Every structure is written in C-alpha cells, then in structure tokens.
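Exam revision sheet. Question 4 asks you to relate a sequence to its structure. Input first:
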Amino acid sequence: MRWRLVPRGVRRDPHRHRRARDHRGPRVAAAGGVRRPVPRHRRGRRARRGAAAHLILATDRQRLADEYEQLSQIAPTLSWAEGYNQDDWTTTTTRVGEALGRADEAQAQLTRTNDAIAAAIDAHPQLAGLTFTLGPVTADGAVNTINSTADASAEFLAQLGMELSPTVTSLPSSGIPGRAVISPEELELLDADVLLLTFNTPEARTTLEANELFQRVPAVRDGRYVALDLPIALAIGFPSALSIRYGLEQVLPEVAAALA
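Answer key, structure tokens:
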C-alpha cells in the first residue's frame, strides 16, 4: 500500500480538518475517516521520531470507500471528489492545495503545467489531427488498447491536438473499463498515425516485436511505433501537475521522431 502522510512542521490551514471532511467523495463521506494500521516493526520507529499525520492524501486510492473509516482514525483524509480515477489533475491539485493551506502554490503549479502544454502545442503543430492508439501489453503477452477518449492517457495526447483512432473507440471494453484486448489475429486494429505501447516486462516486448503479424502493422512497418517505458506511461496515465510536465518532456520527442 502507498500512503502519503503530511508530517508535523508543514504549514497548516486552521480549517484543514473541516476542509478535508468537506472534500470527501459522496460515498466516502458517510464512512467517517480513514486509517491504515502501522506495521508492528515500524511502531517503535514512528514513536521515536514523534511523527504524526495531520492529513492523509488518498485521492488516488481505489478502495477508499471501504477503507476510509480505518484511515480517518489516523488523521483527516482527503479522498477523490467524483470517484476513483475520475477527477482530473486540475481538480486534484486544487483540492490538495486547499487542504494543505497552500492554494496559491497549487495554482502556481497549475499555471506552470498549462503553460508547458501550450508551449508543446506551439512547438509541435504537426500533431494536430493525427490519430493514435495507445495501450499496455501485460506480462502474459495480452495486448490492450485504450478505447475511451475519457482515459487520462488519451486525454494527454488529445490536449496536443491528436485523436484517439476511431477504429479502437468502437471496440468493446474488456474486463477493465476503457480497455479493449486485441487478439494476435487482429493486431492491425492498432494501426494509426502513431502507435504507442508500453510493456509490463521486457520479455513481453521482445515477444510482441518478434511477431510477424505485429511487424506487418503499417505503423510498425513504417517506423511510427513508439515503445514507452513503463514509468512514462504511468506518468501520463495517472497525471498530476508535475507528471504531465515530465510526460511532455519524455513522450513528445519520441512521437516527433517517429513521425519524422
């Protein structure tokens, strides 16, 4: 599990407790608060340090509705607003800034990121109107493609003027909403002006790229295929004001090179 705790000494908003409660999602509000039990081997260490949480940021916690009661026993907990993976990065950044009493700093980060997006659009006008497909390849070799324009990764590229390929948006979702599984016989469905994939393991990449059917996909054959490192894919798939800037720095040069 991954929890972010705000330690003592951080500048605090006198109304932080109320704000944290006010910003709970609708399902979570009824649950009360949230706490994660401290592992036994860490209890003494935490006591010696005198560390205590003033706020838990759980805006990206999938099972928060079930765990909120436990977490709130530690400290006020900031949940998602609309639902897991439904809040956009601007909403999350604004709410976290308000909960920490750092609203001005949050707005400054938003401005920096929006300026970076605008600069990227100006620097890469050739991307406007181009289609893309994007998705993960799991360790067992299953090829997934994003089929929803509401997916954060799709929105990342769409904000640069690109368009998720209509071929994949018409595909039925698999067990994961916003994802379609592509069978080996249908790899041509991945074709677009730019094809981007990320791989859970190096072996999965080696196997797919050696597949003759994959090599026949026009985007692959013509060099318009980009294999994104997993950390980069996560940065744009779970965006924040900081990760978007990182994503722009990492993704755009690779896409531009593929189109050159």
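Marking note for examiners. The chain has a mean pLDDT of 83.
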